[in-house]
Amino acid sequence: MSKAKNGPLTGIRIADLTSVLLGPYAAQILGDMGADVIKVEGPEGDTTRDLGPRRSEGMAAVYLTANRNKRALGIDLKSREGHAAFLKLLGTCDVFLHNMRPSAIRRLGLTYDEVCKVRPDIIYCGAYGFSQNGPYANKPAYDDMIQGVSGLAATQSAVMGRPGYIPTVLADKATALSAVYAIAMALFHRERTGEGQEIDVPMFETMVHFHLLEHLYGGNFVPPMGPVTYPRAMSPDRRPYETKDGMIGVLPYVDKHWRAFFEMAGEPEVMQDPRFATIEARLANINVVYAKLAEIIRTRTTDEWMKDLDAANIPAVKINRTEDLMDDEHLNAIGYWQTMDHPTEGALKFPGIPVQFSATPGTTRLPAPHHGQHNREIMAEAGLSAAEIDALIAAGILCNKAG
After folding, report:
1. Rounded distance between C-alpha atoms, residue 262 and residue 187, angstroms
2. Collapsed DSSP state (helix, strand, coil) of residue 188
3. Is 44 helix (H, G, I), strand (E, B) or coil?
C-alpha cells in the first residue's frame, strides 16, 4: 500500500468530553484516522488514568491504551468562565462527542441546542447508556449493566450454567464502533449538504441490535416460529476442543467441510446419519453434532490436526492465550504491534491500526497526553489571548493535575 501523510479525517477537529472506555476508544479511532482530537477533562481527570500499572501518576495502562492521538485540555466546565471558554473552543470544532447522561449534560449547559448557537453545523454525538427518549434515559450504565439488560449475560447460561458477563468490555467497545461509524456518516452528510445534526448512540439499543443479529431467530416471525436464541451458538459443546496435547478451535460449517472432516477422521459413514446429512439437520441436532466433533478431535495432536485441517481448507486455529498474541506469527509478520517512546512513560507497546487505507492510512502520531498538557495551545487556537489564558490558569479553571 502507498503511504500518504494524512488520514481520511485530517482537518476534522473533535472535542472529546468522554471518560472510561466507550467514548475514549471511539475518539482514539477517529484520532488514528487523522482527526485533531481534544480530550477534555475536568479537574479530577479521567478515572482510567488510575487503572492498571503505571510509571507516572495519572498515566496508567488502561488510560494509555485508549487515548493516543489526542491533545489534552483540563478545564472546569462547571465554572462560568470555563463554560464560556469551552463554548469558544466548540466554535472551532466539527464534532462534539460526550458520554454524559442527558440530565448531566443539561446541567452543564451543553445540550445540542446550546452548542448549535456557537457552531450551527456541528456533529453532536451523545453516547448514552439508554436512548434519551425512553424511561431508562437517566439510568447509570456501565458495560456489565448493559451486558445484563441486553440479554447477553443470560445467554452465557448455556455454557456456564448461569448468567455471566463476557470477560471483556464488549458493550463499551461495540458501542464505540457504532459511534465512530455514525460520526463518519454524519460528516459525509454534512460534506454534501452543509447540515450538521445530533446523533444519539445508546449502549442498550446498540447491544440489543448486536445481540439479536443471530439470536432473534424464530422471533423474526409473527407469531414466532422458534426460540429467540440461535441454537448453534447456544450449544454447550460449541467450545474449543481438546486434542491429545492441547486445544484447537475448529468449525466445519458447510456440507463439504463436514464430509472432508469425517473422511479425514476415517468415519465417512457419519454423513449418512440423517442428523448429520444437511445443514438444517445439523442445526436441529447441534449438541449431538458438536459432541461427535469433540470426540474425534481428542484422537490426534494439535499439530496433526492443524496440518490436516488446513490442507482440507476447514476453518481451524490454535487457541491463543491473551499473552500469546504478543508473539503471534501473523501479527508479527504484518507489523501489527507498534512501539512508541513516550516523553515521560518510556517505551510503550500497543496494537496497531487494524484497517488499512491505500491512499489515506491512519497513523499513530501522538502519545497519550498528561492531564491538561495542551491547555495553552488549545485555548489559543480557540481565540483566547495569552492574558485570558493566564487568568483562567490562575483561577484554577484551566487545570493540570500533573502540575
Report:
1. 52
2. helix
3. coil
What's the confidence (pLDDT) of residue 323? 94
Assigned C-alpha cell, 21? 472506555
H/E segment holding residue 233: helix 231-234
Domains observed in the chain:
13-211+333-394 (3.40.50.10540), 241-318 (3.30.1540.10)
Do 248 and 317 touch, CB atoms closer than 8 A?
Answer: yes
Q: Using the predicted structure, report yes or no on whether residue 197 has a pLDDT greater than 70.
A: yes
- CA dist 401 and 383 (Å) reads 24
Residue 22 and residue 175 in contact, taking contact as beta carbons nearer than 8 Å: yes
Residues in the chain: 403
For residue 22, how many C-alpha atoms fall within 13 Å in the half-sphere facing its CB? 29
Tens of pLDDT, residues 376-385: 999 999 999 9
The owner of cell 500469546 is 324
How far is residue 68's CA from residue 347's CA, in Å, rounded to a whole number? 14
Under a CB-based contact definition with an 8 Å cutoff, are residues 66 and 24 in contact? yes
pLDDT tens per residue, range 295-313? 999 999 999 999 999 999 9
- The C-alpha atoms of residue 279 and residue 252 are separated, in whole angstroms, by 11
The helix, strand and coil proportions of the chain, stated in percent and rounded to the nearest 5, come to 45, 15, 45
Q: How far apart are CA 120 and CA 96, in angstroms?
A: 12
The stretches of 8-140 forming alpha helices (DSSP H) are 22-32, 61-66, 80-90, 102-107, 112-116
* Tens-digit pLDDT profile for residues 68-110: 999 999 999 999 999 999 999 999 999 999 999 999 999 999 9
Q: Is 97 exposed, middle or buried (0-12, 13-18, 19+ CB in 10 A)?
A: buried
Of the residues 36, 143, 172, 273, which is catalytic?
172
pLDDT digits (tens, 9 = 90+) for 116-168: 999 999 999 999 999 988 999 889 899 999 999 999 999 998 888 899 999 99
172 given a catalytic annotation: yes
Sign of the dihedral through C-alpha 352, 354, 358, 364: negative
Torsion of CA 29, 30, 36, 40, to 10 degrees: -70
pLDDT in tens, 276-295: 999 999 999 999 999 999 99
pTM exceeds 0.85, yes or no: yes
